[in-house]
């Protein structure tokens, strides 16, 4: 990597950002990322998905670098198939947080991502999985969600919108856990201090990269910490308004190869 590079590290979210419908990456995006790497930059994926739900995407990309997964809780070495860094969520704290939220707005539906490279996503009663291609395990009781270590809790509410649920949860338990909205029907509780920025900082140190040399791409409020950490944040045209408000630049949508448009300008 040389000082002449516009950015030494290219950090991309997946859903709604690099990925098109069906978890695919266009040929144009492949080419643009390859050109950035050829120029000396490194590409790092930073996703809310935990490792078990992202490995098929990494394999499809031929991706062999580090990936920040689980909303920043995990740093995964795709080439070695190993977790280099992982932060578990205290299950008692998760239960307390859920109880406080439900005391405010009534029953919420919950799911959890378990810890580990081969861990499962457990779906509690009422929770609807909006990505049926991803593997899940249904459980019959809320208490079953806490059977093994977890890295985050996912919430849905029968009436409140994602934004409303996020706002309420943050107001009620924001001092206990990190509350983020990662996508449609995806409101999450994480360990305090864990977000995409914290995970990316760990990975960047392993890569001997810095925030000042990083460009980041995203589409949802969970990308806000990453944008704050990186030197330049690029929101997709389809991005949530909260992310657009803090972005340095807005590109085309994920379906229109918005990442490629920017990378072609920088590395073409």
Short recap of the structure:
The protein contains nine helices and 14 strands. The chain has helices spanning 14-18, 27-38, 55-61, 91-105, 162-173, 196-206, 224-229, 241-246, 258-267; strands spanning 9-12, 42-46, 66-69, 74-77, 82-86, 109-114, 121-123, 137-138, 150-156, 178-183, 186-190, 214-218, 232-235, 249-250. An eight-stranded mixed β-sheet has the order 5-4-3-2-1-12-13-14, sandwiched between helices. A six-stranded mixed β-sheet has the order 8-7-6-9-11-10, with helices on one face.
Task: Describe the protein.
This protein is 31% helix and 23% strand. It is an alpha/beta fold and 268 residues long.
Shape: globular
Number of helices: 9
The largest sheet, given as strand count, sense and whether it forms a barrel, is: 8 strands, mixed
Structural class: alpha/beta
Which residues sit in consecutive blocks of at least 5 with pLDDT less than 50?
A: none
Q: Roughly what is the average pLDDT, rounded to an integer? A: 95
N to C succession of SSEs: EHHEHEEEHEEEEHEEHEHEHEH
Q: How many strand units? A: 14
What's the end-to-end separation, in Å? 16 Å
Radius of gyration: 18 Å
Which strand order do you get reading across the main beta sheet?
Answer: 5-4-3-2-1-12-13-14
- Helix percent reads 25-40%
In what range is the share of β-strand residues?
Answer: 15-25%
């Amino acid at each position: 990597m040389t000082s002449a590079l516009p950015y030494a590290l290219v950090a991309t979210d997946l859903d709604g950002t690099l990925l098109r419908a069906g978890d695919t990456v266009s040929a144009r995006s492949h080419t643009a990322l390859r050109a950035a790497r050829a120029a000396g930059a490194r590409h790092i994926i930073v996703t809310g998905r935990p490792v078990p739900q992202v490995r098929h995407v990494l394999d499809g990309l031929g991706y062999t670098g580090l990936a920040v997964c689980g909303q920043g809780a995990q740093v995964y070495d795709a080439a070695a198939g190993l977790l280099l860094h992982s932060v578990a969520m205290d299950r008692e704290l998760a239960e307390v947080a859920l109880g406080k939220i439900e005391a405010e707005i009534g029953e919420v539906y919950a799911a959890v991502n378990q810890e580990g490279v081969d861990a499962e996503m457990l779906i509690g009663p009422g929770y609807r999985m909006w990505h049926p291609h991803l593997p899940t395990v249904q459980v019959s009781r809320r208490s079953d969600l806490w059977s093994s270590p977890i890295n985050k809790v996912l919430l849905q509410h029968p009436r409140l919108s994602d934004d409303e649920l996020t706002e309420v949860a943050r107001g009620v338990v924001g001092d206990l856990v990190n509350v983020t909205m990662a996508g449609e029907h995806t409101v999450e509780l994480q360990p305090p201090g864990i977000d995409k920025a914290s995970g990316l900082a760990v990975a960047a140190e392993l890569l001997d990269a810095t925030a000042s040399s990083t460009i980041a791409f995203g589409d949802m409020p969970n990308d806000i910490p990453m944008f704050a950490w990186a030197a330049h944040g690029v929101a997709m045209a389809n991005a949530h308004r909260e992310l657009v408000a803090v972005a340095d630049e807005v590109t085309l949508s994920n379906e229109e190869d918005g990442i490629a448009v920017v990378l072609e300008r920088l590395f073409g």
